[in-house]
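ARCHIVE CARD
SHELF: 3
SLOT: left
DATA:
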Amino acid sequence: PFPGWTLPGVFTAGGAQKLVKTERVLPGKKILLAGTGPLQLVLAYQILKAGGKIEAILEASDISINWLKGLKGIWGNWDFLKEGWEYLRNIQKADVPLLRSHMILEAHGDGQVEEAVIAKVDKNWRPRPGTARQMPVDTICLGYGLVSTTELALLAECDHTYDLSLGGFIPVRNENLETTLPGIYALGDGAGVAGSKVAIEEGLIAGVSVARSLGYTTDADAKNHKRRVQKRLAKINRFRKVLDKMSMPRAGLFELAKDDTIVCRCEEITLKEIKDAMADGGTHTKDIKRMTRVGMGPCEGRMCGPALIEMMRCQPNAHSDALECLPPRPSIKPVA
């Protein structure tokens, strides 16, 4: 009934955030947050502010080590640090456990979520033996990475490259943020998930580039304007790379699926069906789509596409050139 809803009591972090912030409804009474990256802290802050109870926050990465290594990238981005510290301070005041290097392995329940199985994980997000334990919860919010919104660029047939740290397939761009098709620019989360501040600065670069191409400004003025913007953008990107390195999904996440795990929720395609299709000669994602109908549902592969690529790479008979995105169809987004 709500955006991001998957199973009774299971939400994506973005869906839960919309539920709390926009709909002003708490997703449950005993909430578990599991995933990686700063969105978890934002969601936890909003849930606590709305009066909700969080049993624990599971961060897959060891963020203490990553922050230390990323000090150079963090330096100067004090507004981001201040915002993050505010979230952490409120989480600590509410006595919510923040478990680093932890992941959810399974969710159990009769008709709805009643229990989560969690475990400590290594640097590749693989569960450490003997660390699994049960946690009674009625709601699970999952946020293991974000996916770039590239449907328009894909339909325009711009060249794309695969970068898991930026959300999968992203359009190839030059220094003016123009794609491989002249006159088409890509920026913001449509060209790699990087946040609103990056999107604003990239918008300024693309805007002045368009203005110059139409003759509304000189080369010198456009160059000076872009230099100032690129300086600000470089500082933000230093910080963003720290978050990218920390949050990029690791192999252990995609190895959690079992044969009966549903990969494509729209068409209810299981991992076993995908493995059988690969064994039957399916070497590329488009082959698997034709053979199993994975990615043919209302979401058009937005949810299962990125997972499908990484799960195929985990299989022993996977091909190195199997990385292909599932192409979207008009009208870009499902409509009623």
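SLOT: right
DATA:
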Amino acid sequence: MSTLSKKITYYIDLILVLTAKEIKVKYKSSFLGYLWSLLHPLSMAVVFYFAFKFVMKIPVENFTLFLISGLFPWQWFSNSVASSASSLLANSSLIKKVNFPRYFIPLSLVLNDAFHFVVSLPVIIGFVFFYQIPITPSWIYGVPLLMINQFLITYGLSLMVSSINLFFRDMERLIMIGLNILFYLTPIIYDVSLVPEQFRNYFLFNPLFGVIEGWHNLFLKGFIDWKLYYISLIQSLAIFFVGFLVFKTLSWRFAEVL
């Protein structure tokens, strides 16, 4: 085996170990284990269903499926970005003692939440069957393509947040505020068609809009809006490269700050 192959194998093993560690730590001494990752968005879906369907009577078809097909991907995104803020601080001893690519730490968090998103897909599929919505061939390529977009956005922001928070500790609190604002500026609990037409184009400036709308289109309508997907892909790549650049620029001072 060549030196390059050994290095790649070592890095893959390291990423798997770090990701497995995050999963074990998250559910240590937990009776329900990963089911908690399902119960949180499902409980939110129940609350929003009551508030928007019964109280405000929002005219969205198959509203339960609409909610969970937005809340599950949102949970992946928000959990990863929020937890990444303190990820380098939480692994300070590892960073000081072991020489490895530091960007593996936020990567393990993103992969951890991606794993929980994948195991939540059977719940979404269950509601798809409940509402008698056909599963189209678009699912075969649509799910991995949308996951790639979401991974790039989530990982890019996680890299940025984790590195900046070492030098500006208020970032952790600002992120929580920002995520709360972004949640309501993204059509997760309401359909974008309900937004006045003169404001809809502004949603394209929200990098998460294309991802969430992509999941809604795939799970409820069985297709991919390619124009929206490519816009989202460009935004995802831009966020990833900016996040990676910020992380790389600041990484040489990590050990010093920690």
